User: What shape does this take?
Amino acid sequence: MRKKRTSKDDKTNGLSRRSFLRSSVAGTAALPFADGRVEAEETAPERSDAANLIDLTLNVNGNTRSMRVDHRASLLGALRRQVGLTGTKKGCDAGHCGACTVLVSGKRQLPCLTFAQCHKSDDITTIEGLAPGAETPEGLHPVQRAFYERDGYQCGACTPGQIMSAVGCINDGHIGTRAEIREYMSGNICRCGAYPYITDAVEQARDEISEARGTSL
Amino acid sequence: MRAYAYVCADSPEAAVALKAETPEAHFVAGGKNQIDLMKMGIRRSPAIIDIAKIGLDTVEDRGDAIRIEALVSNTACAEHPLIIEHAYAVSMTIVKGATQQIRNMASVGGNLLRSPRSVCYYDPSVHNARSDGMHATSYSVGGVDRMNAILGTHPRTTDANPSDMAVPMMALGAIVNLLGPDGARDMPMSEFFRLAAQVEAEGGGWYALGPFDLITSADLPKTGTGWNQHYHKVRERQSYAFALVSGMAAFRLNCGRIIDASVAASGVARFLGAFPWRPHSRVVRPRRRRLSRRLPAVSRAHSRSTCMLSSSTFYRAFSPARSLRRPPVRATVQCFGRSRYDRTGRTQAHYRLPLHCFSLSSVQPNHEC
Assistant: This one.
C-alpha cells in the first residue's frame, strides 16, 4: 500500500488545509486572496436581506443542526456554508456531475437540486458521517477504505460524491456485475477518468460489506 | 434566484386549495427540474408549494390497472414488482433515464411535466415569448439544435418532449388522474399531452391541466398475455443522457401473429406521438411458417427481442391503415432522428434524416394456442 498523507499528518502542521479553508470562510471579509468566485459563492447569504432569512433545523449525520439561512439556499449550500461540512463538493450545481451526492433518508440524492428547507424532517448523511472520527485508513467506512486502497481517484474533487454514491449503490444492491456498477454509478462524473479503479473499489467494498453481513449482495 | 414564498402542503386537497389561493405558485415534489429552472432564471416562481409530504406514494393493484400515484419516486416505480410484472417497459424506460440519484428524487407526476431540453428553452436570451415561466405556455422557436422537435412542429415552437417514462405510458394507454378545486377527474394520456396546433388554436398550455390541478396518479392498464414490449433509446452516450430519439413498441401476439400493437416516440415532438394500432383480427392471416419457440413468461418476453439498425421511416408506424394490410410478424418501427452534425442551417423540421430506427425482430409468440 502506498504511503498516503493522513489527517494525522495534517494535524502535525498545526493548521490543516481544511481548517484553514474553514476559518477563511468564516471570515471572508479578511480573506487575503479575495478571489471573486470564492467570495461570490461563500458570502452570498450574508448579502441577502434579513427578510429572506429563515430559521431551519436539519438532521445531519445524526446531529441536529440549527441555522439561519436564506430561504433560497439549496441543501448543498446549507451543508457547506451553514453546517460547515465542506466534504460535500459543489461541482456543476445543476445535477450533472454528482459531486455533491449525499444520502437523504438512506437514498442517494443531489443536494444541489433541492431546497434546504424541504428537508426539515429527513436524515441527511454526508461523507463526514460515514466514519466520524476515523484517524487511520482501518477506521474508515469500507467504501472509503476501498477507494483509498484501490486508488479510486486522482484529483479527488469527485471522490466524496463517488463514495456516497457507491454507499447508496451497495445499499440498493445494484452491484452484481461491473457493467451494472458502471451503469448505476453513471451519475458521478470523474474528470480524471479513474472509472476502472472506482469500479474496482466498489467491487472490493461490496465483497467486504457482504462478508461482514454474511450475505451476498 | 428571486425570493419566493414557501408553503408546505400536508394533503392533496390542501395543495390544490393553496394553489387556488396563489395561482402563480408552482408545485415542487422532487424539485430537480423546477429548481434547476428557478436557478437559471427561466422559471420565476413567486411561490412554491412543497407537495413532497402529501402522501400519494404507493403503487397499487386495481384489478385491470395499476395505479401509480404521483409522488412515487422513479426508483420505486421502476423497481415495483407490479410494474415489472405488468408493464416492464415502464420500468425499462425509467432505468434508461437520468441517474439513480435523480431517479431517487424525481416523482412520477413531475416526470409527466418534464420541460423541454432544447438549447433555446434553457437560454433566457433566446427563449422567445416566454410567458413568465409557466411551464404550460413556454415556447422556443427555431435554432438548429439536436434537442428540437422534428415532427409536429409549429411556427411558434420547436420544443420536444424529452420524457422517457411517459412514452410507454402513452403506448400502453395510461389514464391520468387529476385533482382540482372542483374534485377529481381523469383523462387518457393522449388527451393530457396537447398538440402544438391545438395549443395555438384553442389556447391553454401544453398539458390539459387546469390552472389549479394537481396530478394525483396514473392508471396503467395491465397488459395481458401475449404482449411484447420494447423501448429503444438513442442518445449521445451510453448512460445518463436525454434521448435524441426514442421509441416504444408493444405488440400483442397470438399464435405467431400480431393482433394488437401500439407505438409511441419521444424526443421528436412535444406531443409524444402515440398511435394505437389495432388491426381487425379477420384481416390477420396465418403465417405460413409458425414460430415454434415459445417464451415462458410474458413480461420478460421483450428481453428476447433484439434491436437492430435498419432503414425505413417512422411514418409507417404513424399511418396504421397502410401498414396493417400485411400484418407483420417481423415488425419494424423506425424513427427519424436528428443529426448532431447538421451544419446546413436548415431547420430540423425540414431536414429529416433517417438516423436510427429499431426493429423488433424475432418477436416470439408466447401465448398458448
Remarks:
- The longest helix of chain B spans residues 12-21.
- Chain B is about 20% helix and 25% strand.
- The radius of gyration of chain B is 21 Å.
- Residues 85 and 299 of chain B are 6 Å apart (CA to CA).
